Structure prediction request, 474 residues.
Amino acid sequence: MALFLFYESASGFALFEAHGIDEIGHNTNAVRKSVSDLNRFGKVVKLRSFNPFTSALDALKQCNAFGEGLLTDELRIVLETNLPKVKEGKKCKFSLGVSEPKIGSQIFEVTRIPCQSNEFVHELLRGVRVHFDRFLSDLKSGDMLKAQLGLGHSYSRAKVKFNVNRVDNMVIQAIFLLDTLDKDINSFSVRVREWYSWHFPELVKIVNDNYLYAKVVKFIEDKSKLSEDKISGLTDVVGDEDKAKEIVEAAKASMEQDLSPVDLINVQQFAQRVMNLSEYRRKLYDYLVAKMNDIAPNLASLIGEVVGARLISHAGSLTNLAKCPSSTLQILGAEKALFRALKTRGNTPKYGLIFHSSFIGRASARNKGRMARYLANKCSIATRIDCFSEQGTTAFGEKLREQVEERLDFYDKGVAPRKNINVMKSAIESVENKDTEMETEEVPVEVSGKKAKKKKQKAAVADEGDDMAVGKAT
Prediction:
């Protein structure tokens, strides 16, 4: 059986015909030895045709299609033109060697040309790649390198291009930083409490909030200087006049240890750092909410911004999360417990990161597993809508959230929930109604413009009539 080789280069498509395959006997080692010698390899493989790309844009298009395993019209024409025709009902007397099995199966489905991609074919294509510039007499030595470099840059640039409004990498970095900031703020706040408690130990019991405690420490500074004159300023910091008076009374009867001015300065600076971190954490949370509403609005409205961002971060991207089935999404974050249960043949975990959702906490103990499975199903639907829809909307996420609420009522009270198909129809109708409302908001301006034109025309006609009447009267 004759063997043809298809080689995709940076400058065009090339077809080679392999001779002497029977003598080699499909021996991979023999091909590997013959690759290094062009005289020997040239007797085995000969160029049949070469079809160059018309432009750099065409080369990028063919490269993207080949990487995704798609058969373009140009490639189909090249194969049908330069290869023997395959007659229907008869066995094909040749095969085509390709580098990727995916493109080989696509070629066979469209053109019925049998393809093979094995180690023997890969060794032959490796030899073609090594000596390709020598098979083409009109090609100079540096031309192939320039074509490869240009196509490589174009291909990488096309892969890096993204929609800046829907880039999920920013969400991944933001949620990582948010979790790190939570740990750091908690540990720093504990350190501030322990440090300042040597000077004012009663303040810990009065002020519980970490951020508020750091603000109070920054305001009080030296406890011995705290008097009733500062109650108004302390009230602005604490937000409660009774609590401010309590702090002043506690300062008078406190069993403290005096701190030197240098120690107080260090405590104040550290408290200021904790306050700055807390404020930055609040801004970062607002940024995360805004990005999640741009990237995954339905997932955010269904399960919340933080839990949705953790799911995206754990999956690696929004596309990876959309590709996950609901059973995988349900236990994302509990892989260690899952593999331990599989190894010990114990009970597998029922939920992973979605356990932080309020729906799981509101469900009873016996319904937590069923609620997690149902919620994972709805999260999978919302993620796929966010990932593959061109228009961003929260209508589907709100309807899915209503379904989860109805499922909770069904478990607790036995109220029958609505069917999924009816809910999805209502969501689609709400989206269409919003679109029509946006269109109708623009229409009245045009109508009013037309009415104004008609009024002007009527006024002009009336003026002409008046002029004619005046002329007749004169």
Notes: Confidence is low (pLDDT under 50) at residues 443-474.
